[in-house]
Structures are given as structure tokens and as C-alpha cells.
Amino acid sequence: MTKHEFGIEKPKNLKEEWPGQYKIFSWLEYVVNIPYPIFIITTYKANGKANANLWAWGFFAGEENGFYSLIALTDTTHTYENIKRTKEWCINIPSLDFKEECFKTIEHNQVDDDEIAQAGFTEESAICVYAPRIKECPISLECKFEWEKSLLKNSFQKIICGKIIHFGVDEKAVNLDQKERIEELKIMYNFRSQLNPLTGESTPGGICIIDKSAFSK
């Protein structure tokens, strides 16, 4: 395999899809373009209304003494503000069956909006944290704040670490093997628009899921 090698300097011929694109996001994100699982971070606003943030920048890690979520948040979001105040939140992993409702959460993001109900979802109570869960999501992870760190000096992006202290999984999926579980859950992945660093042009991204045929017997 022969690789085309790149430095991290942004090429001059890049074309933005929208103003400020490569200021808010690294241009490398669109070149490397690794799909990330889509999830909805839910919190309560100061007025008690539900906040729902459709997101795909995060991952999970753990060891014997704990399982943790790490999410990258911009410090201007309601979600960041709510987490700083309550120190608790839920990560809800939706199914492709509710793709339309997921994207409706983006439309309803005012302070007085109930962002779960207005997107067409149903709120359910968390077991261990002060944060709403989404009933239609087959996996819900309840998180408590552990630490925060800026992505880099003076960055508007913050890495938030939360310890998962409770979780719920759709009872239809609990006893399934890996292949059956993937088919049942239909977890969505965010595939960025693909940037060609040689020409500066990009092709549209989209939503993808794992095909069960990808698993060997």
C-alpha cells in the first residue's frame, strides 16, 4: 500500500460549505472522515425544560473501576451550560427508525422549548441522575460529571468526562448476540462530507448504519 502523505497545514484551495466551517471544525476531520455514532445528550435547563442535543463527537472508555463517556462540547451550547450547572446528563443512543425525530431536536432549541416532546419523542425519568431520558432510544446511559478539559489553550471546545452510573437497554436487545443486536438496534453513524485535499472539493455526507453481513459467521 502506498500512502499519500499530508502535513497538518490547511491547503489554500479548500472551499467552505458554509462560512466559518474550518474555524469551528478542523479541515482534517473532513479528510480523515471516520464515522462516529450518533447520540442525543439530554439535560434539564434552568427552567426545568428538557434539552436535547443531537451529537456525534464522543466515545466511551473504561476499566475495572468504571465506564466513562467523553464528549467534546462547544462552550456556547445550552448542553454545556446545563452540565456545568447540574453535573448530570444522559446519553441516549437512537435507532434509524427515529431519524426524523432526531433531526427535529435541532429545530427546537429555544430556552422555553421542551426539546424532547417537540421533536416527537417521549420523556422518561432517569433512575440515578437529574436528567431526562428518551423512551424511544434503545440505549440510555446516565452520567455524572468527573472532569473537564479544554481541547487546547483558549479553545471553545471542552472535553467533558462523565462516569456512567446507570444504564438502560431495550429488553428486546439484551439477550441478542452481536449480529442480531446490530440488526435490532440500527444505531446511526454520522458520516461527514468527504473533502478531497488535492482538489479542495467535497462530496455530501450522510447517515450510515452497520450492515449485519459485515460480521463473519
Automatic annotation (TrEMBL):
InterPro entries: Flavin_Rdtase-like_dom (IPR002563), Split_barrel_FMN-bd (IPR012349)
Record domain Flavin reductase like: where: 33-173
Keywords: Flavoprotein, FMN
Keyword Flavoprotein: yes
GO molecular function: FMN binding
Keyword Flavoprotein part of the UniProt annotation: yes
SUPFAM superfamilies documented for this protein: FMN-binding split barrel
Cofactor(s) it depends on: FMN
Family: Belongs to the flavoredoxin family.
Protein name as it appears in the record: Flavin reductase like domain-containing protein
Organism for this UniProt entry: marine sediment metagenome
